[in-house]
């Protein structure tokens, strides 16, 4: 498990959570789940972790042909997680929830060992965000009220446990990461390592694109895409091919953008530019492949798709070395780069510590929290069942 990518990502954990409609209520209590001589986790923390793991496992199970969303039978199916590990779903859920709890304990221990001050504005911000999500949900500003209190409290999760597992944990996890890998830390990353990683893994690119199809709307307001005629498509491809030659002859990309705007009567900048790690980029595979084959300060054209989906790209690859100052020596970009470099390493470090953590389990209480407790039958299925029952009753009465 990689907590920096999984439970460290608050929004992911919250968005995939299934609403607790028609669940079996669990009373809030002060029972503990795991404890050491320094940390004691209430059962609500375990329940939150189990519910989050349940949602993750359900997502894996939903990809299986035998998955049935109207039944909790999928808990007995073998699933494969993002790391390629296979396990029976219910076992995976319990193991994942325990790992999450152990990671909470490890992070608390590291905060104390490293002397990190968790008071002040950062902690206040974490609490404020948790309170907002708990009482009105993350989309209240858009008029959608989805308080997480309604989703978690029926499962015995108090606000304190919710805050501990989400915003507070994310804040502590990040603080420990930065303390270890930042300046003066025991795992400090030096400038030469930053530069090496940045220049070897990041790509500076820009592009302009044009559709080789046109969209029309009929009288019923239905849209339809149709490929351009060969003549019209050639005008675009010839224009872009010409720009690529000019770029490769030394004309700047900005000058090409201005020429394109003038030629096509545009006022807004039609180009897209980025400096990013292509491994995690949302660019299509065709563009990633092209950029991987290109040299610095080279341009080329690439056609993606065909017929009524074809798009023509003019792409330009800049010199990544020219971005070093803006990324390696800018504090904000440096922190993002550091996270990209070391997040997996740090996640493994925490996991390894978790495996070595000696803690006491309140097994009799933990056993009361079974994965099937978090199953919620889809409303459509419930409605269908009710309808079927009504029909059966009516049929029986008429006999």
TrEMBL record:
<protein>
    <recommendedName>
        <fullName>Peptidyl-prolyl cis-trans isomerase</fullName>
    </recommendedName>
</protein>
<feature type="region of interest" description="Disordered">
    <location>
        <begin position="379"/>
        <end position="399"/>
    </location>
</feature>
<feature type="compositionally biased region" description="Low complexity">
    <location>
        <begin position="380"/>
        <end position="399"/>
    </location>
</feature>
């Amino acid at each position: 498990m990689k907590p920096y990518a999984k439970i460290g990502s608050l929004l992911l954990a919250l968005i995939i959570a299934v609403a607790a409609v028609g669940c079996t209520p669990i009373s809030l209590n002060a029972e503990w789940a795991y404890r050491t001589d320094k940390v004691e986790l209430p059962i609500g923390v375990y329940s939150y972790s189990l519910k989050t793991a349940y949602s993750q496992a359900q997502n894996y199970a939903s990809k299986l042909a035998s998955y049935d969303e109207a039944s909790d039978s999928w808990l007995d199916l073998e699933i494969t997680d993002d790391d390629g590990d296979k396990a029976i779903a219910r076992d995976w859920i319990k193991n994942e929830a325990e790992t999450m709890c152990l990671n909470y304990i490890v992070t608390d221990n590291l905060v104390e060992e490293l002397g990190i001050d968790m008071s002040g504005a950062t902690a206040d911000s974490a609490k404020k965000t948790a309170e907002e999500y708990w009482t009105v949900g993350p989309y209240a500003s858009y008029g959608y009220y989805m308080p997480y209190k309604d989703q978690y409290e029926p499962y015995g999760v108090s606000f304190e446990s919710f805050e501990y597992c989400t915003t507070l944990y994310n804040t502590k996890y990040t603080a420990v990461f930065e303390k270890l890998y930042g300046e003066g830390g025991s795992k400090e990353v030096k400038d030469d390592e930053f530069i090496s990683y940045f220049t070897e893994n990041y790509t500076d690119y820009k592009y302009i694109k044009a559709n080789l199809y046109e969209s029309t709307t009929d009288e019923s307001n239905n849209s339809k895409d149709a490929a351009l005629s060969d003549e019209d498509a050639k005008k675009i491809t010839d224009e872009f091919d010409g720009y690529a030659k000019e770029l490769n002859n030394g004309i700047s990309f900005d000058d090409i953008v201005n020429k394109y705007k003038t030629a096509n009567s545009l006022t807004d900048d039609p180009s897209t530019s980025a400096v990013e790690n292509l491994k995690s980029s949302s660019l299509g595979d065709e563009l990633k492949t092209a950029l991987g084959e290109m040299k610095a300060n080279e341009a080329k054209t690439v056609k993606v798709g065909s017929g009524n989906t074809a798009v023509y790209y003019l792409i330009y690859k800049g010199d990544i070395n020219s971005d070093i100052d803006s990324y390696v020596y800018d504090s904000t970009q440096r922190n993002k780069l550091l996270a990209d470099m070391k997040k997996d390493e740090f996640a493994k470090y925490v996991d390894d510590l978790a495996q070595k953590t000696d803690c006491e389990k309140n097994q009799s209480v933990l056993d009361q929290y079974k994965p099937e407790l978090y199953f919620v039958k889809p409303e459509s299925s419930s409605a269908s069942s009710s309808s079927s029952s009504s029909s059966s009753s009516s049929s029986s009465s008429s006999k």
